[in-house]
Amino acid sequence: MSIELVTLLMFGSMILLILSGLPIAFGLGGLSVIFVTLLWGQEAIELILYATMDVQNMYTIVCVPGFVFTGIILQNSGIADDMFDTIRKWSGRLKGGLAIGVVIICALFGAMVGISAVGTLTMGLIALPAMLKRNYDKELAMGTIQAGGALGCLIPPSVVFALYGVVARQSVGQLFMAGLFPGLLLAGLFILYIVIRCHFQPRLGPGLPPEERVSWKEKFVSLRGLTFPFLLIFLVLGLIMLGVTTPTEASAVGAIGSVIVATIRRKFNWPMLKDALLSTLKLTAMVAWIFIAALAFSRIYTGLGAVKMLAGLLEGSGFGPWGTVILMQVSFFLMGFVLDEGAMLFIVAPLYIPVVASLGFDLVWFGVLYVMNTEMALLTPPYGFNLFYMKSIVPKGITMMDIYKSVIPYVGLQALGLALVMIFPQIAMWLPGLVSARLAQG
């Protein structure tokens, strides 16, 4: 059986199963068992067992439950309420000020927990009612929350970067540092878009009425609401960049810090802990099973010589190294319509990464491009996770089509940010280089 035919059968079957609604882990796992048996016989089933053991032995993946637990505890601690109140008081009188505040808070959440769901759900529950109450355009409000939440994929510490580091065998600390300024770039693009659009269309994001504005004294007093977030950001991100802890150790520090914050705020109790632990277990188990199934799937395909075939196709395409990387980004974008970030990473990245390395590109930089694509995948229908998060919390009367329309400008801004990082790689790479140089000198 030719590799071209196997490619068509494997990936065609995978897409059909995903579109059927079958969980990705079961679909990929089942296909792995079927194809390894058809291609090499029952004895080759050990390939899947080896994939399972490899996942169990990946030390870096241990940081995933730590960051997930941190995010859940912070989401339930009420810290977001204080953050939103602070931002509301400082930026509320500006046109689009509340939307700007949402982007800032989501960026801060991303720097504390590293997953998109926390920022999207928390701001959806807190900020969306506040903006709709003050006559914000519903599409601007929803789009801002979903795009802001997606920053959690890129701004370190990012769970997606941790998983990419495992697959690509790259330093997770380097990846975290490489994602910081592209994340801030996207946040800046979102804010600039809000400012410009609300300047020309003030009705989309009116400023706070005079009776809701506060004095300068109240504004400065409200800054206390940002104390805990900045302390946690320093603990989690600062310790990694200073070389004091590994990302895995930093995730444990963040988890302990989140419990301390919740305790100080008198929100920590047994039901909260039980819920956080159970939710962390469920989400981590889901990631692990997807990882196992996708790793088995990709190894079977790679074992057929897929990497050599893919490299030959790309080299013979005439597009050159840069054209090849651009084609990969287009493929990531298209796959984002039907796959989540984990599936894209585990299925396609193992095939692309050796090709990218052979072309002479930095795999840390390529990881940033991949994660920026996953941000777009979170917002693109029909399977963008942030679209579903938003649908679960919007008021009655807001349709799925309203939610789809709300993200269109932000997907365009994400594509612009991706292009800028491709054209100017130092946006991502200067900080890892600087930190590495200083650590070497020290």
Q: Would you mind describing this structure in some detail?
A:
- With 442 residues, the chain is an all-alpha fold.
- The protein has one domain (58-268, 304-441).
- The chain has helices at residues 3-19, 24-40, 46-56, 63-77, 79-91, 97-113, 116-133, 138-150, 159-168, 172-200, 216-222, 227-241, 247-264, 270-303, 306-315, 320-335, 341-358, 363-379, 385-391, 400-423, 426-441.
- It is globular and about 75 Å long.
- The relative contact order is 0.14.
Spell out the key features of this protein.
single chain, about 450 residues, mainly alpha, 21 helices, about 75% helix, globular
How many angstroms does the end-to-end distance come to?
56 Å
Structural class: mainly alpha
Helicity level:
over 70%
**From N to C, what is the helix and strand string?**
HHHHHHHHHHHHHHHHHHHHH
What's the overall average pLDDT, rounded?
A: 83
Shape: globular
